């Protein structure tokens, strides 16, 4: 079957179409004929153009992606959370042609019928071994490597390095055995994903608006006798009913569990006066949230209020500093050192005073932390979207405050899109 002609990157394809004079939109999730919401064709063209440019800038012949986030970015396909840990899908981009996608069994046939973003003859069924449960001795990885090499040769890039993002060791060996020079492709894909266009920003804003509503419900339901796990179940149900395509994780941390932060949830029963914080990590159309809020249940002590006040102060000085051209080191140095809030090293305190990019993955560029940013800063750029997190343990030895805001970097600075009120400590169901 004939493939499409090679695609040329046009200025329109790679234009993010930012318009900072207008409010950031969070429209409804259904298609309508009376207003433009998310333009998915434009989104696909933009993501593919960004990837092609990053590939050209890196001097590689192709990108071979096994990371589901990169696969969705390149091909506008997904088969859900089930595939995230299977390493069962892979995509190849050779520059100016459509990507090739090898998907799980009948998913390839489904894509040919229903996913027109790439040419139908570029969808293939593929199976490499499901993380070793089908051993490499079957030859599936060798067959895949031979097929990939033939496509590289046909595209005229067979002698150039190929960027690979993540890979099982036997697959890496198979690629090398057929003469493919493998280099790091994850950095190239992160380059591509760094700047969000208007459609990506709209999807991230819609995702944040869904969590706004979940936090309002949590504030109503959070009372003595409710378990952390019940709040997690409630949030999962509400998010999926609103259209989430992946509730990746929800942290629910209360009472004596707050300090140090355990990054999980249990069946602990909420008690009067508990400080409790939550993180809601979910995706709408593949675009993720990371959104903490802290509540006190019924009442709050002076030490709990003080912890929240400090946590908010650390947040606000960071938000004020975020502007295009600022280095991530300039933000990180505004936060306290690990020893100042009870930790022995910056490694042990990592991700407590923290910033991280958001997009089709939970952690994209920029990463902001005293652990890495002071020595390896990167520049904040217009069109980045990232989360900023702060944490402060209370002097009572068990409580703690945790706040997180998601921001879009405009030409003037940070625009917060996480809108559930957090300037002052919320008291859920006050006595």
Give an overview in words:
The protein has 431 residues and is an alpha+beta fold. The strands form three sheets. A six-stranded mixed β-sheet has the order 4-3-2-1-5-6, sandwiched between helices. Helix 6 links the parallel strand 5 and strand 6. The longest helix has 24 residues.
Summarize the structure.
The chain has 431 residues and is α+β, with helices and mostly antiparallel strands. The protein has helices at 11-14, 40-58, 68-75, 106-114, 140-154, 169-177, 186-193, 198-221, 228-242, 302-321, 328-332; strands at residues 62-65, 90-93, 100-103, 123-125, 162-164, 182-184, 246-254, 275-284, 287-288, 291-297, 354-357, 364-368, 385-393, 400-409, 414-416, 427-428. Helix 5 (140-154) crosses helix 6 (169-177).
Outline the biggest β-sheet.
6 strands, mixed
Low-confidence stretches: none
Helix and strand sequence: HHEHEEHEHEHEHHHEEEEHHEEEEEE
Separation of the first and last Cα atoms: 71 Å
* Shape summary: globular
Average pLDDT rating: 96
Task: Quickly give the structural class.
Answer: alpha+beta
Question: How do the strands line up in the largest sheet?
Answer: 4-3-2-1-5-6
Share of β-strand residues? 15-25%
Count of β-strands: 16
Total of DSSP H or I helical runs spanning 4+ residues: 11
Provide the gyration radius in Å: 23 Å
Helix proportion: 25-40%
């Amino acid at each position: 079957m004939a493939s499409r002609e090679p695609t040329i990157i046009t200025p329109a394809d790679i234009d993010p179409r930012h318009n900072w004079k207008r409010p950031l939109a969070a429209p409804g999730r259904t298609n309508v004929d009376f207003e433009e919401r998310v333009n998915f064709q434009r989104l696909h063209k933009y993501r593919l153009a960004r990837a092609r440019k990053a590939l050209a800038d890196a001097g590689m012949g192709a990108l071979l992606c096994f990371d589901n986030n990169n696969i969705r970015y390149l091909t506008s396909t997904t088969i859900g959370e089930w595939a995230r840990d299977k390493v069962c899908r892979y995509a190849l981009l050779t520059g100016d042609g459509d990507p090739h996608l090898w998907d799980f069994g009948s998913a390839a046939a489904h894509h040919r019928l229903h996913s027109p973003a790439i040419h139908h003859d570029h969808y293939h069924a593929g199976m490499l071994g499901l993380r070793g449960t089908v051993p490499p001795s079957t030859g599936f990885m060798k067959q895949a490597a031979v097929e990939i090499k033939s496509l590289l040769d046909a595209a005229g890039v067979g002698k150039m390095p190929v960027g690979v993002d993540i890979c099982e060791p036997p697959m890496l060996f198979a690629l090398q055995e057929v003469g493919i020079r493998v280099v790091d492709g994850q950095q190239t894909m992160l380059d591509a994903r760094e700047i969000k266009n208007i459609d990506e920003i709209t999807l991230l804003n819609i995702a944040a608006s869904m969590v706004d509503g979940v936090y309002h419900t949590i504030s109503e339901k959070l009372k003595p006798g409710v378990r952390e796990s019940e709040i997690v179940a409630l949030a999962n149900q509400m998010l999926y009913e609103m259209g989430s395509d992946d509730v990746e994780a929800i942290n629910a941390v209360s009472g004596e569990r707050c300090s140090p932060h355990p990054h999980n949830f249990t069946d602990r029963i909420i008690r009067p006066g508990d400080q409790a914080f939550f993180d809601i990590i979910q995706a709408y159309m593949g675009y993720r949230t990371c959104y903490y809020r802290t509540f006190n249940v019924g009442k709050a002590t002076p030490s709990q209020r003080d912890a929240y006040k400090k946590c908010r102060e650390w947040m606000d000085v960071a938000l004020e500093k975020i502007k295009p051209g600022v280095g991530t080191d300039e933000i990180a140095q505004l936060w306290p050192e690990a020893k100042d809030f009870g930790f022995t090293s910056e490694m042990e305190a990592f991700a407590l005073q923290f910033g991280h990019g958001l997009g089709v993955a939970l952690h994209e560029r920029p990463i902001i932390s005293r652990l890495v940013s002071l020595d390896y800063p990167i520049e904040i750029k217009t069109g980045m979207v990232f989360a900023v997190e702060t944490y402060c343990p209370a002097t009572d030895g068990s409580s703690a405050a945790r706040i997180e805001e998601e921001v879009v970097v405009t030409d003037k600075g940070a625009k917060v899109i996480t809108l559930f009120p957090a300037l002052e400590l919320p008291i859920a169901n006050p006595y």
